[in-house]
Amino acid sequence: MLLMGLFFASCNDWTETESVTQTTQRPDEQDPELWAQYTAALREYKQSEHTLVFASFANGAPVATSEKDCLRSLPDSLDVVSLTNADNFSEYDREDLTVLKEKGTRAVYFVDYASRSAEFTDLTALGAYLDKVVARTRELGLDGLSFSGIPVFGSYTDQAAQKAVASLFIEKFAAVAGPDKELLLLFEGDPQFLAPADRAKVDYFVLDTKETDNATDLKLQVLRALSAGAIPCNKLLLGAKTEYEFTDEDKGAADAISALTIRTPEIGSQPLAGLCIYSVNADYFGAEFIYPLTRQAIQTLNPSK
Predict the structure, then answer these.
(1) pLDDT tens for residues 46-55?
(2) CA distances from 15 to 3, 10, 18 (A)
(3) 3 within 8 A of 9, measured Cβ to Cβ
(4) Which of 145, 162, 213, 242 is the most buried (most CB within 10 A)?
(5) Per-residue b/e over 262-288, b at no fewer than 16 CB within 10 Å?
(6) Domain 50-301 - what CATH class?
(7) Cβ neighbours, 10 Å, residue 1
(8) Does the structure show a pLDDT above 70 at 173?
(9) What is the mean pLDDT of the chain?
(10) Per-residue DSSP letters for the chain?
(11) What is the pLDDT of residue 151?
């Protein structure tokens, strides 16, 4: 009986729960000196000549369901992130922006005019909104501006209205952003949305190839941008969408990000400036590590970096 009592007493000792205090530390808190060296190397890399990788990120989640909603978890070597919900920039985004700046990743305020044109049929209202965007960009400490648009090849009246909209974007955005300016200026879409004289005021063009699903159409779009659009290779990026299938010249299928990654250096007369990954949040969950396709694209385009 004595042995049985000792046995049950021991079992009680084993099964008694104890609270354990766990402290989550950011990398900069674990080893501040090593983190400073690492982020300095990242910033130096991003200032060097290399093939660019941008990402289009759905920010502004009111409650982060996982790290896929957090800017801080984007791949460290990413050059630029375009914020698709910049109008609703959250406190979580504000906290993560500090981390992006440490890494040298630039964040830009994206205005998707291509999908929101019905909201801005009045030029005065659009101009007032763009003024607020510029002011908000400065207030938040973002690194630039980006916008989209679809060229109109309809009636004279339709084309005139589109030209007025494009001119207004350039008037408002190019006043503070673009080549030799403090802020970065991007255009996401068909370059012919902008007047030829205004295209030089944009730093980079992300061609609207995110839903292009075959090699033939991709080549035609790039050729049109380089010739009719007169965009230099070193200012043009391809757009690739996460979870999108692409058919190559031999009718083989692959994911669009991998397919466009290998075409970025070779599809133009010279290597293109880089690649922009759309719906990047969807690439977060990987079998072995996070953002697998995005990381693979960065490494493939910059193997010696």
Answers:
(1) 999 999 999 9
(2) 19, 9, 9
(3) no
(4) 145
(5) ebbeebbeeebbbbbbbbbbebbeeee
(6) alpha beta
(7) 5
(8) yes
(9) 91
(10) -HHHHHHHHHHHHHH-----------HHHH-HHHHHHHHHHHHHHHHSS--EEEEEE----SS-SSGGG-GGGS-TT--EEEETTGGG--HHHHHHHHHHHHHT-EEEEEE-HHHHGGG--SHHHHHHHHHHHHHHHHHHT--EEEEEE----S-HHHHHHHHHHHHHHHHHHTTTBSTTSSBEEEEEE-GGGS-GGGGGG-SEEE-S-TT--BHHHHHHHHHHHHTTS---GGGEEEEEETT-EEE-TTS-EEEHHHHHHHHTTTSSSS--SEEEEESGGGG---SSSSSHHHHHHHHHH-TT-
(11) 87
Tokens 């440490």, residue located: 102
The total number of residues shown for the chain amounts to 305
Token representation of residue 197: 């004289």
